[in-house]
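seq:
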Amino acid sequence: MTPTNVTKFVVKVSRGGTRTPDYVERIDRTPVQMTTNRKRALVMGKFTAEDSVKSIQISRCIPESVPVQVGA
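struct:
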């Protein structure tokens, strides 16, 4: 049986310039906890990712949901 891939999302936040992008690590805290390590990023469903993007949009950062393939 071949494993199927499922598309999940991580939220990447760019703050401009040459800084390393941050990724959402936890959303159950205020403010949202971030990490620069993509492997530690929270893998979530599309609607949760979209809600996270909306909740952290501020003028100096650009959040975006990035699709990732996860084996199921």
